[in-house]
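Morning - manganese (II) ion inputs below, output right after.
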Amino acid sequence: MPTPRLTNEEILRRVEIWRDHGEEFTAAAKALSKPDTFIRRAVLEADRRGLLDPRDPRVPDGTHIKRRTIQTDAKGNETGRSTVIGPAAGADFKMPKGHALGRMTAQANADGEIERVWYKTGRQAADPDQVARLVRKAFNRFRPAAPVLPVPDCDADRLTVYIFTDWHVGLYAWGAETGGRDWDLTIARRVLAETIAELVSQTPPSGRALVLCLGDLLHADNAKNMTERSGNVLDVDTRHAKCLPTVTDLLTEACELIRARHARVDVVIKPGNHDAASTVGIREGLRLFYRNEANVTVDTSPDPFHWHRFGVNLIGGVHGDQARMPDLPLIMANIRRQDWADTTTRHFHTGHIHHDTLRETGGVHVYSHRAPVAQDAYHAAHGYLSGRSMRAYTYHAERGFRSTTEVEIQ
Ligand SMILES: [Mn+2]
């Protein structure tokens, strides 16, 4: 808020009256029936603005003459003068950054003219929108390690099995070469996380969940970037030390989402032909992460097969690169004799071939599942034409298989 300022014209008018009265403040003021200050103030201000003495420079608006220095010779004659100009006192008040006006006090003379103004400022109360923007910015890159999750309200008689297979994290695909999508670690991280989130949001609210990882979640098992048995050279995006933590992060995030939807979660991580050794480490990472959680168990069995009994359902899982698919029903019957006898719905889930098949043999549904990953040059050159998706299967303890949830990836 600006301090009221007299115009040069008004100042010169009063100065003229002052001169007409022999440069006497009181006389000049009395002639106008004004108090002394009416004239005194104008004369002082005229002096500061360089209006009184023709030897002074005319100062720019908002400035005052602060000091005059007059040089004289030995006889006392003026030989030169210099004038220092600075900001005028009472120039426009500038609010300090982040402050707001708290109180203003003005002093007026007998004529009601404001002579002095005091401003009292204080720290401005924060603008809530601005605070929200700052908080959002501060948490932009924040990834909670272990969010507190509500216990879901869901059907204890149902089990949803999440099939996580053949993610091939670390696989590199160049769309120009494969005729498909580009794929690398960054794309995998984003697409898999999005697909998992959508899949989990669409499954029925069953009380139980089984996270059934069927192998080849990693494309390469070590930094050699070759398959263990056949020694095929793999197209790998980056370092093994970056790929493996990406899988553990994705799996942990997936389990947290699943835990928010289902009251109890069992996590099973089986090896594939691309990641047999790394799977042991991934499994241990998950086991340690959930060691203090009562509603999540992580299976550490080195058995390549997984057997899961849920009421009338018997569910098997294996990667699918070793035992032949037509043999799987009899393997199930032999290894789980009692469960075989006590169940009526029997499903076997496999991965490996990245291709959607279902074959019913002896009353057992043997599935092979699609992979969510883009095709690499090897598979493209062989002309494989599979779609990409992620699936979950829901079973009822007494009524058997109920539904499939599938999220496709384009
Ligand atoms: Mn495989």
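Note: DSSP finds eleven helices and 15 strands in the chain.

O.
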